[in-house]
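Reading a protein record of the kind used here takes little practice once its layout is understood. The reader may check this reading against the record printed directly beneath this paragraph.
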Amino acid sequence: MVGEQVISVIRKAVGDEDLMEGVTTESSPWANEEEQLRDSDAVITDVTANFGLLERAVANFDARFTLRVLRSLNTLRKRFTISILAEIIKRTFPASHPALSSLESVLGVPLNTISNCDVAMDIDADARGPDTLLPEIDIYLHLAVQIHLLDRKEYEKGAEFSDHLVKRMRGMNRRTLDSLAAKVYFYYSMFNESLPSSVALVAIRAQLLASLRTATLRKDVDTQATIIVLLLRNYLLTSHISQADLLVTHAAFPESAANNLFARYSYYLGRIRAIQLDYSSAHEYLISATRKAPQAAVAAGFVQAANKLNIVVELLMGDIPERSIFRQQMLEKPLRPYLALVRAVRIGELDAFQNTVNTHADAFKRDGTYTLILRLRQNVIKTGIRMMSIAYSKISLRDICVRLRLDSEESAEYIVAKAIRDGVIEANLNNEKGYMQSKELTDVYATREPQDQFHERIKFCMQLHNECVKAMRFPMNQHRLELKNAQEARERERELVKEIQNGDRDEDDDDFEGI
């Protein structure tokens, strides 16, 4: 290497090895430059290999090759630079391609010349015409530029670039583009969410709704599921709950969508149902979201958000979450404020609940659960009444008012009556003498509660089995190949039968394999 030769010359000239202890090949500018060149060549080679996978996806009409390309983007995006992206675009796009002008304005690098590089490329840019570039490779490189702009936090430039890309992509009706198009729409929404003003967030709804209609007509499952999730997120960010509910009512979420999209859809649906006071449905959706979400470090944020909302929903339902949830390594630290909240609600102390809410108000607002937690005040009071109904066979309304720190005995009477009507406690209320008398506790196994719990578990197991069957992958058009082979075998058998009947072939022939 040039750097090593320079260092050896300096060492001979100085003649003292101790003076050169701090000079190494790693710290020399020549070595750093050569390492950067090797890294850029490796990135270009990896991206070029993805071109081959995209060509195989188009030739075989198999989306699994495209998914492999998208998975590699997570590692390649950390090594992308403007110079590397510009070099790849120069070698890939023909000189007369119409998308070069927009890419040149975004990257700020001239792209109208083809550089001479020794790295082997699978695509010969000089031999391509303006219309011979695969649309999948075109959109893939646009997606790489889109991701690089997001990593550089150039939100305004990225939003404008994504808007042009989405409009251009809507004219391409190719099923092999579905997975790439879904990713483009995802980053299109992310750019507009990152802008300081919420005007852009509302302005993209028309484009997303039009793209959803087009994807539904084309039976584009990936894009359809992605846009539905993005629209729900968009409506929730601007607190348009009624519009989100209308979208869920009129747009059917595809059953064959990926698990990560289904988990996000269930989470947003659970949040909508929780705001609409439908806590039982919200609990079911949130449980589905936590079970379908990947239990890996990359999805830790989503798992934490879903469990936080689910804990609040369980408390609103009158249930106490299991303690094992707060002991998981991924959830232990983020759920500490919610553990204090559960303790306050479980013991039914209104002062402890209010102090917990005031202490962790910033965390609850950041998680988007603050307004739901404020509804828990009535649940804390109901829990306190339930604890008193268990501890006392008869207690006056005045004592209930003092223990729960209510304003008046009329408020205590109203709360106790509502708790009896909702089935929270089994008691009788004497309005004339002003006391509550508890009934004798019945055996829970004499009720339908165990049967209902058993039914819920069986229902979940059957649903999980059905989803696993639907998620099984089979080779595309394999049944047609089997039918074709069976038909050819039957035709050969008929020909053999005819030859035997006509006397042209005997059964003792050596090459006869049988009918």
Observations:
- Confidence is low (pLDDT under 50) at residues 1-30, 113-131.
- The two ends are 72 Å apart (CA to CA).
- Residues 302 and 484 are 47 Å apart (CA to CA).
